[in-house]
Amino acid sequence: MPSMSKRPLAPESFGGGEYERDSEVHVKAARRTSESAAPEMPHSETRIATHPKTGAVTTDEAWAQQTIGEPIIAMSPDELRCLPLDHRAGFLLSLMDGTTDLETVIDLSVMPRANALRIVRDLFECGVITFR
Do residues 60 and 114 touch, judged by C-beta distance below 8 A? Predict the structure, then answer.
C-alpha cells in the first residue's frame, strides 16, 4: 500500500479581497498626490478680467479679421504640458513663434480654414496665446 502524501489535493482558494483593498488604497493615495502636484490654473474670473476685450464678434472669420499682430504662446512649457491639448492644437502652437502672422499660420496648418480658426480662437480665449 502506497503511503499517503501530506500535500493537499486542491490548492487553497485565493483571498483576493485583502489585496484588492490594499491596491485601492494605493490608487487613492496616488490620485491625491498627482492632484496636489498639478499647478493651479487661475480662476475663471481672473482670466476673464485680465483677458483683452475683443468686442461682440460672432464668427471666427470676423474674429480673425479683427486680430492685430502675430500670435505668440503666452504660457510656459510646464503650463502647456498640463493642458488637455490635442495634436492639432499642438501643431498650431508649434507654428506660433511671434514672427509669423495668423494668415500664414492658418495656411501652413493645411487644415480646413474654419477648423484652424476655431482652434486658434479657443487658444486665444483660454489665454494660451496672445497677439503682439
Answer: yes
3-class secondary structure, 73 = strand
**Grid-cell match 491639448, residue found:** 85
Largest CA distance in the chain: 99
Q: Is residue 62 part of a domain?
A: yes
Could you give the number of structural domains in the chain? 1
Contact (CB, 8 A) for 118 and 62: no
User: How far apart (Å, rounded) are the C-alpha atoms in residues 57 and 20?
Assistant: 54
pLDDT, tens only, 48-91 = 555 555 556 679 999 999 999 999 999 999 999 999 999 999 99
pLDDT per residue over 16-54, tens digit each? 555 555 566 666 766 676 555 555 555 555 555 555 555
Report if residue 12 sits inside a domain: no
